[in-house]
Design brief:
Elements: H1 2-26, H2 44-59, H3 75-82, H4 92-102, E1 110-117, E2 123-127, E3 138-140, H5 143-150, E4 158-160, H6 166-169, H7 173-176, H8 194-202, E5 205-209, E6 216-223, H9 228-242, E7 247-254, E8 260-261
Parallel strand pairs: 3-4
Antiparallel strand pairs: 1-6, 1-7, 2-5, 7-8
Helix pairs in contact: 4-9
Length: 267
C-alpha cells in the first residue's frame, strides 16, 4: 500500500510541475517599445515644404494632348489684345487692317469667321470669290479608292462618287460617316457627273454647318497674307450664304490673334 501511495504522490507532483510549465509558456511576452527621438526642430520646415510639394504634385492634371493645363497667354498676345477695342464693332475693312497690324507670328496665319446664329441645323454650300488658301484633296471613287479604304487609307478631304459605287461604299459608312466624308445627295457629293462636281470643289466650294449641339459656325475664309479686298470679299460672300438675319454675333480673327467684333449691318 505504501508503494502505491508513493507512486500516486509522485504522479501528482509531476502533473503539478507540468501545469506550472504550461502557465509560464502562456505568460505575455514583454514588448520593447522604441520611443522615437525628438524631432529636430531644424528639419521641420524642410519636411513641411516637401509635404506641400507632394500635395501640389497630386493636384496637377496632365492635358489630354500632352499640353500644359495653363491657359495663360503670352506677352505678345496680351499686347495684341490691348489694341482691340472690345466696345467697338468694326467694319470688315477695319477689322482686316487691325488683324494685320496686331499679327505677331512668323507664319501665314489663317483668317477665320466665327458666328453665333439663331438656331442649330443651319447649313449650306458656297463657292468663295477667292480661294481660302487651303489645299483641298478631292477624290472621285474608283476601285483604287475602294482598295485604299480597305487598307484604312483615307487620303482625301472630300469624296465624290457616281451612284453606281454606293453599294461598294456602304460597308465603309461607319468609318466615313463620323468624319463627314461619306458621299451623300444633300452635300452634292453623289452625282452622275462626278468630274464636274470635283472641279467645283477644287475651285474652293465650301460646305458649312452649325455645330451639332450649339448655334455656332466656324469657317476659314483665307490667309492673312491675302490682299485686304480678297479677304473682305470672301467674308461678305460667306455672311450672305449664312444670311444676315440668322446671325446674332460675328467675330473675325487670325489663327493666333484675339477676336474682333464685326458690325453685321456694315458687312
Amino acid at each position: 500500500m505504501e508503494d502505491v501511495e508513493k507512486k500516486q504522490k509522485k504522479a501528482q507532483k509531476e502533473r503539478s510541475a507540468e501545469k506550472k510549465e504550461k502557465k509560464k509558456s502562456k505568460a505575455p511576452v514583454e514588448k520593447t517599445v522604441v520611443v522615437p527621438a525628438k524631432e529636430d526642430e531644424a528639419t521641420r520646415p524642410a519636411q513641411r515644404d516637401e509635404a506641400k510639394k507632394e500635395k501640389k504634385a497630386k493636384k496637377i492634371v496632365a492635358h489630354p494632348r500632352g499640353k500644359p493645363a495653363s491657359t495663360q497667354r503670352g506677352e505678345q498676345y496680351s499686347d495684341a489684345k490691348k489694341k482691340v477695342n472690345k466696345d467697338i464693332f468694326y467694319s470688315l475693312d477695319e477689322a482686316i487692317k487691325l488683324l494685320k497690324k496686331i499679327k505677331f507670328t512668323s507664319f501665314d496665319e489663317s483668317v477665320e469667321l466665327h458666328l453665333v446664329v439663331d438656331e442649330t441645323g443651319l447649313k449650306g454650300e458656297i463657292e468663295l470669290p477667292h480661294s481660302t488658301g487651303k489645299t483641298v484633296r478631292v477624290r472621285i471613287v474608283d476601285d483604287g479608292v475602294i482598295t485604299n479604304l480597305e487598307k484604312g487609307i483615307m487620303d482625301f478631304d472630300i469624296l465624290i462618287t457616281h451612284p453606281s459605287f454606293m453599294p461598294k461604299l456602304a460597308k465603309f459608312a461607319r468609318v466615313l460617316g463620323p468624319k463627314g466624308l461619306m458621299p451623300n445627295p444633300k452635300a452634292g457629293t453623289i452625282s452622275p457627273n462626278p468630274d464636274e462636281v470635283a472641279k467645283k470643289f477644287q475651285k474652293g466650294a465650301l460646305r458649312w454647318k452649325t455645330e451639332a449641339k450649339f448655334p455656332l459656325i466656324h469657317q476659314m475664309i483665307g490667309k492673312i497674307s491675302f490682299e485686304d479686298k480678297d479677304i473682305v470679299e470672301n467674308a461678305k460672300a460667306f455672311l450672305e450664304s449664312v444670311k444676315k438675319n440668322h446671325i446674332k454675333k460675328a467675330f473675325i480673327k487670325s489663327t493666333m490673334s484675339p477676336s474682333v467684333k464685326i458690325d453685321i449691318e456694315k458687312a
